[in-house]
Design goal:
The chain has 62 residues and is an alpha+beta fold. The protein contains 1 helix and 3 strands, in the order βββα. The chain has a 3-stranded antiparallel β-sheet, with no helix packed on it.
Length: 62
């Protein structure tokens, strides 16, 4: 198994940091929290990269 992931959760609009110390990373779209980044959890459990990635909209600076 390789450790190379092209999905960067930090850039996804569904990614969030939880308040749960045991499961600090979450995916709103898939509805789960994880000890690892959601993209890693998805790959480890399915063998496929996340198919629900959507880039965050950039905020325009004034």
């Amino acid at each position: 198994m390789t450790s190379h992931f092209t999905i960067e959760c930090h850039k996804c609009k569904h990614y969030y940091i939880t308040w749960d110390k045991k499961f600090p990373y979450g995916c709103r779209k898939m509805g789960f929290k994880s000890k690892t980044l959601p993209s890693i959890a998805v790959y480890q459990n399915s063998g496929f990269e996340c198919q629900l990635f959507q880039p965050k909209k950039l905020k325009k600076q004034a």
